[in-house]
Design brief:
single chain; FAD/NAD(P)-binding domain; 5-stranded parallel sheet; 25% strand
């Protein structure tokens, strides 16, 4: 790991030229940051560290994998850790939305993965092709077999643009099509952010000449950061609004609400945020299934229910399920691709074999331990749990997963529980964010403030504080 001195405060100050006074003011809003900073020099000492033995293999070098590696490396007195990850570049993926809004550049969201990996961790720069949990081994793309005593699966998820008929990844950035998600961590690219920033500006030029039709989509699958589709919807709209321009926006989502996880946030979006723009039409239960890029027509599957005849015996109305095919013309479209667990997990015995979680890692939603293979744990987006495909969730997975893995290594039962914590910094306009925090039970704010209120302070926190916290605290297992 790099020996250079980490000056967290200077990094915050360097973000957009913030003064030291303003940086301190921002830190004051975050008990989480303050606690982490006060303990930033306090890695687990040898006296505190567990003497448990065993070969640990971590699969994945994104946020979840690096956080798991850092925490385990500190928590064990003699760690035996192998990290299997092909990506030599590490992307701060939440920053892609700020790239799309013109607030970050690619250089702002990229670092070398080697800066986070200690020298005594065996880093295999490959990816796992096959998981063989019955024999406690994995097989890499290059055919190397690696055995383990304990396995941490942190592979993340994958995007399936090709599940939308007529769409391929190379079409993103052409003919009015954008997708902020487009990236390739192994290649160290994040084209979606820069492409979407160009899309913002192309949209602005078109709005100077008329009133373009814009569609923002959200698919029928679980997705990384469920609020991102609306972030693009509101930021692109506000980008026009600042210059007195407008467009006809349609938000086409497979969901039935704007923000179902927290009713108060849903109400705020419906009653105040969207009316502020006055040009958004919501199309609920609409899933994008096909695109005709040449003619700029998007085709959606609209599934809904209607009331049928009254059943005298059951004393209730029949419910009839219907499906319509809906075509919409557009000038600009922002597409969020369908997402799924990576193939190596989905095609293995580690995945849920049926139900809504099929293809995702079959871990207990509380302990993050595999339900059938007790020496296997999960962290991050790959976990097949009801909540938690955000970086904030992975941060909360980390201490729970590590504590429970150490317990198993020490011959004890896992007792720590993940509460489903998820956070969505929902950008409703330039300079305003709703910090929507929730868990399995509902709203779960970390601060004594209304969870649904758009605030400047959350914009400043997200833009200036969160990234250095990610690099210097989260990725080093310090928070």
């Amino acid at each position: 790991m790099s020996e250079k001195k980490i000056d967290f405060m200077d990094e915050v100050i360097n973000e957009k030229g913030l003064s030291r006074r303003d940086a301190l003011k921002l830190m004051g809003i975050s008990p989480i940051a303050a606690t982490a900073l006060l303990s930033a020099g306090g890695e687990v000492t040898q006296a505190q560290a567990s003497g448990a033995k065993g070969k640990i293999v971590i699969v994945g070098g994104g946020a979840g994998g690096i956080m798991a590696m850092a925490r385990l490396h500190s928590a064990l007195s003699n760690p035996d850790i192998t990290l299997i990850a092909p990506n030599e570049v590490h992307l701060y993926q939440p920053g892609q939305v700020f790239m799309a809004a013109g607030e970050y550049t690619f250089e702002d969201i990229v670092k070398d993965n080697k800066d986070f990996i200690p020298d005594d961790v065996n880093w295999i720069k490959d990816e796992v092709k096959t998981f063989d949990p019955d024999n406690n081994k994995v097989i890499t793309r290059d055919g190397k077999e690696i055995e383990y005593d304990y396995l941490v699966v942190a592979t993340g998820l994958q995007y399936h643009y090709e599940w939308i008929k007529g769409l391929t990844k190379d079409m993103i950035g052409k003919n009015g099509i954008s997708s902020v998600y487009l990236n390739d961590p192994e290649a160290g690219t994040a084209d979606g952010g820069s492409i979407t920033w160009e899309w913002f500006n192309d949209l602005k030029e078109a709005a100077k000449k008329g009133k373009p039709k814009v569609i923002c989509t959200q698919p029928a699958t679980p997705i990384k950061c469920g609020g991102a589709p609306q972030k693009i919807l509101y930021l692109s709209n506000d980008y026009l609004k600042k210059d007195g321009l407008t467009a006809d926006f349609t938000f086409a989502t497979n969901g039935g609400k704007l923000f179902g996880a927290v009713p108060a946030v849903d109400k705020m979006l419906k009653d105040e945020v969207q009316p502020r723009y006055g040009n958004i039409t919501n199309k609920f239960k609409h899933n994008l299934i096909e695109i005709d890029a040449d003619n700029k027509v998007a085709t959606f599957e609209h599934k809904y229910e209607v009331q049928g005849e009254y059943d005298e015996d059951l004393e209730e109305y029949d419910i009839i399920k219907k499906t319509d095919i809906v075509k919409m013309e557009y000038d600009f479209i922002h597409i969020v691709p369908p997402m799924a667990g990576v193939d190596a997990v989905a095609n293995s015995k580690l995945a849920w074999q049926k139900g809504s979680g099929k293809g995702w890692l079959e871990v207990d939603k509380d302990t993050l331990q595999h339900r059938r293979y007790k020496n296997v744990f999960g962290i991050g987006d790959i976990c097949g749990v009801p909540k938690g495909k955000t970086g904030g969730s992975a941060r909360h997975h980390g201490p729970i997963m590590v504590a429970n893995l150490l317990a198993v290594m020490e011959g004890k039962k896992p007792k720590e529980k993940f509460d489903g914590y998820t956070v969505c910094p929902l950008k409703t306009q330039y300079g305003k964010i709703i910090l929507a925090e929730f868990n399995y039970k509902g709203a779960a704010p970390s601060f004594p403030l209304a969870v649904e209120e758009p605030r400047w302070i959350w914009w400043a926190f997200d833009l200036y504080m969160l990234k250095p916290m990610y690099w210097y605290l989260m990725m080093r297992g310090l928070m």
